[in-house]
Amino acid sequence: MARIGIIGSEGRMGQAIAQVLASGEHEGSGGVDKGQSPVELAKTSDVLVDFSAPVALAENLAAAQGAGIPMLIGTTGLGEREHGAIDAAAQNIPVLQTGNTSLGVTLLAHLVHEAAARLGPDWDIEVLEMHHRMKVDAPSGTALLLGEAAAEARGIELAENSESGRDGHTGQRAEGAIGFAALRGGTVAGEHSVIFAGEQERLTLSHSAENRMIFARGAVKGAAWLIGKPPGRYSMKDVLGLD
Ligand SMILES: NC(=O)C1=CN([C@@H]2O[C@H](COP(=O)(O)OP(=O)(O)OC[C@H]3O[C@@H](n4cnc5c(N)ncnc54)[C@H](OP(=O)(O)O)[C@@H]3O)[C@@H](O)[C@H]2O)C=CC1
Ligand SMILES: O=C(O)C1=N[C@H](C(=O)O)C[C@H](O)C1
């Protein structure tokens, strides 16, 4: 039985993870929120899960490294600085970072990679997502994860080929671009579609999250999987044994 410490424990995901732990094979070792240090929590946990805010990441990674335990990062809205900090920490501890811990999205990313590789660059790729009105970052971490899967399959850098926030006289779609569109409203847990638009035909691959328990279950599974792994950077694909 793993002792799992939750960072962002009072949040929507923190509470969902506590619910999974209350009825599952692993146990919660406590939680911290804004204004509380994760150092003591790290000392009494086998693994940390972080569903808080990008600004907290450096301190959380330092606490996990100080205690020599792994960390799963579900927080989205991460930038270059945060990804650099994750790479550095992964030299010392196992770190799993993902924009989506669900089984379905992990498989969707695999399918998107396959479709992008097989359909070729003349099929335009657009990623559409919708989330609840409380979400603060866009595009969603999942949309970016799906965009990365498509970019990797095409051998291009997503950062140099993404188009988002189209408004006004935008000019034509850039050749080879991967587009992003974000909708916000209500209580939507998470809707993602990747549209491959070719000549006179379209292929759409989609995932619908009916509630956030799917993310919580995946986070607990991923966190427990990380325990005992060598230092390095991991993804949900590793947990599920997908290439
Ligand atoms: N990877 C995945 O599968 C999923 C990822 N997410 C991501 O997880 C994150 C959290 O989502 P959600 O639970 O909906 O958001 P919430 O806003 O409900 O929860 C975030 C929690 O973290 C707390 N927090 C804020 N700053 C800090 C800090 N510096 N240190 C510790 N805790 C802090 C917040 O406290 P306060 O309210 O006081 O600010 C709040 O309790 C988001 O980035 C979201 O996109 C969400 C679902 C699935
Ligand atoms: O903030 C959310 O709610 C979610 N965030 C993640 C994301 O940014 O993709 C995962 C999920 O879609 C819910």
Characterization of this structure:
The chain is built from nine helices and eleven strands. The chain is an alpha/beta fold and 243 residues long. The protein has two domains: 3-97 and 212-240, 3-Layer(aba) Sandwich (Rossmann fold), CATH 3.40.50; 103-209, Dihydrodipicolinate Reductase, domain 2. Strands 2-1-3-4-5-11 form a six-stranded parallel beta sheet, sandwiched between helices. Strands 7-8-6-9-10 form a five-stranded mixed beta sheet. β1 (3-7), α1 (12-22) and β2 form a beta-alpha-beta unit. It binds NADPH dihydro-nicotinamide-adenine-dinucleotide phosphate (NDP) and the ligand O=C(O)C1=N[C@H](C(=O)O)C[C@H](O)C1. The ligand O=C(O)C1=N[C@H](C(=O)O)C[C@H](O)C1 binds at residues 76, 99-100, 131, 135, 140-142, 190. NADPH dihydro-nicotinamide-adenine-dinucleotide phosphate binds next to α1.
Termini gap: 28 Å
Class per helix and strand makeup = alpha/beta
Strands ordered across the widest β-sheet: 2-1-3-4-5-11
Instruction: State which percent range the strand residues make up.
Output: 25-35%
What is the typical, i.e. mean, pLDDT? 97
Organism: Erythrobacter westpacificensis
EC number: 1.17.1.8
Function: Catalyzes the conversion of 4-hydroxy-tetrahydrodipicolinate (HTPA) to tetrahydrodipicolinate.
Catalytic activity: (S)-2,3,4,5-tetrahydrodipicolinate + NADP(+) + H2O = (2S,4S)-4-hydroxy-2,3,4,5-tetrahydrodipicolinate + NADPH + H(+); (S)-2,3,4,5-tetrahydrodipicolinate + NAD(+) + H2O = (2S,4S)-4-hydroxy-2,3,4,5-tetrahydrodipicolinate + NADH + H(+)
